[in-house]
């Protein structure tokens, strides 16, 4: 189903405002660890770099609008900031992870299987 980009942007922006409010209230250190968002030029360059890296295995011509809007808001977390919890499949446990910045995603893009982008890493990951 096609949802116009403007509607997606509005929904994502509303969600991101709520997330920012949560972080600022409950953990200001986590909010401070967020990297500044990408400009439109930086976002386009990121898409180009991904397309070049993934060309052999898959196609990344344009990021999904919700992910692009997230990158406009923040470019992941600083390197040592592990503030997100990710549910482990089939377990009642969480592992601590961090959202990668665009440069880290591009660096790992050569290892991407078709249609999959690394957007986080766990504390155990290098």
UniProtKB/TrEMBL annotation:
Protein name (Swiss-Prot/TrEMBL): Uncharacterized protein
Species of the source: Durusdinium trenchii
Taxonomic lineage of the native organism: Eukaryota, Sar, Alveolata, Dinophyceae, Suessiales
